[in-house]
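Lab notes, practical 5.
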Amino acid sequence: MKDDEVASTLKGWDVKDKEPHEFPPVDVERKLNISTQDGKRETNVNPSTKRQNTKVVNDPVHGHIKLVPLCVAIMDTPQFHRLRVYHLAELLITSLRERQPELNITDEDVLCVQIAGLCNDLGHGPFSQTFDTIFIPSADRNKRWRHEQASAAMFEYMYEDPANNLASKFEECGLDETDRIFIKEQIAGPLVEDNSDWPYYGRPQEKAFLYDVRK
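Output from the prediction step:
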């Protein structure tokens, strides 16, 4: 995606006229009303809880990037130190939501996709692919190492670490255990061996397209 396309997506910002620095919080207010049909979840969680005090940072490549509070909390953990594909995942999922409302993409869907993009490469070891393809096979030829699995494990470790206080923040944003499973499935694929037509548990098959966003 070209910089000018990214800039046009972030309405109200003129990337070329801004100096690189962190902008003050931006309040985003809109009502959330998700109906319950066919067993789907119903929620009246106020999105201001999820997006209040949204932070905007200026990236030298992509320009202005909006960061929702839960993703900021994840970035503030000791285990995390880079944005990676968060921004592009957000652009794609929000574009789908605006252009195809019939897909019924919820706030929870968007936030889970953002988090998966944010945590996608947490499992890379030192020297990235060299660690995966050379060091690990040399250290243990019997070990099947995939950095995606390590990324999902690192995400779960961050969540479970009481020092990070992520559990309460997830709850405040209306995310539950199913959403956490969905996040890990986006990162690492199916978490258990399943020969059924739909091996995922985080989202139903009618939302299969969500698993392709991060790719």
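Observations recorded by the TA: The CA atoms of residues 5 and 201 lie 34 Å apart. Strands lie at 23-26, 54-59, 63-67.
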